[in-house]
Amino acid sequence: MLYSLNKLLLNQLNNVHMNSKLILKYIFLLVKTLRTISIKRKIIILPAADQGSLGDEAMLLSLHSHIKNKWPNTPISIIVFHRKEPNNLIECKPLYMSEFFRWGSTKCKIKFLLSSINCKKFFIIGADVMDGFYNENESLKRLELASMSAKVGVPVNILGFSFKKTAKQSCIDAFKKLPTSIAINNRDCYSHKRMQLAGISNANLYSDLAFLLEPSNGKEQYLATVNEWIFKQNKEKQLIVGVNLNFTMLYKKIENNKKILDIFLRLINLILENKSISILFIPHDRRNNSFQLSDWEVSEYIEKHLAPTLHSRLCTCPQEMNSKDAKYLAGKSNIVLTGRMHLAIAALSQGKSVIGLGYQNKFNGIFKQFDLEENIIDANKIIEPDLISKALNKKILTLNIDEEKIKNSIEVVKSTSKRQLDL
Question: What DSSP element (H or E) covers 121?
């Protein structure tokens, strides 16, 4: 009966005057009433972004695994906001909301509310998209959906996110207006402190969701070449450095793409001057645009312009890989040098030391959990590649100290991450 009513209302949406606040108010009351008699069958997820980032995917897959373990037969709806399909690694029903995120479509609001009638829980993956830094409008829209859900009685959980010093005032104000029933969870102590200083006192402190992701077994055929290369490096007693260099860490700092690529290439050459080192290049983001190249495009440039005599000591991961594969490969490295925070998390989760090329204070809170803040190098220092290569060579001499710190902290960090899912 509820399904039929829901379908009937959705079919009539085209006849609704889209600016009618009265209609929206009526739908709120209707959904709230129907929720009192409906069976709560469904989970709705708002991911951090559309497909492309393996870091965002790691958080989504971690959440998906939790849902399937706790509610094995529960259907999942994933909100899609840029007309792209949801992640194909997850069985789900897409809930298309692009018009809402673009211009606040009332039709989309009604569709979302009707989909909430039988919603058991609404999870929002907060990541780095809640404070307005990248897109103020999208952050506000996320908070609006959280508020709408809570007002009709859906339990809402905003999962571990960062909060920058530069958070938009409009987002701060929106957080303060959220219903108190919403679970607000920061992923690091610095973000938590910033929220408190901004007057948002009901935020909780946990850890990043991606710590819970299980690595793949590495047996997919597309990883065969990489596995063979890793086996050979281990046999020759080479030290494998997992590396990620990307344009995001230099966001609006260096405008010339060619200059950035040549700096990256210079760094790789300097690292490989140490003949006991081999480099496993681990891209972590497929997205590109007119301003920056994807991680894979960076790796292709380096491979193309690297001296032929060095090719045997460099390997790039295949584009087919997913976030679980990236975690598997991070675990095969002896140390990771990365400008992607979630690749750092993939390595730390498996007891591997990391040097983080930090930007926007992304690494500080995560590394503090392991007493490794001294391992952060400002990404702007990339213009001095010799400084970074020297830091790497120095760190290699004391890997056992880092590994012991990580071993002493990782189970607490994972436990802290998991607890936020049960709020």
Answer: strand 119-127
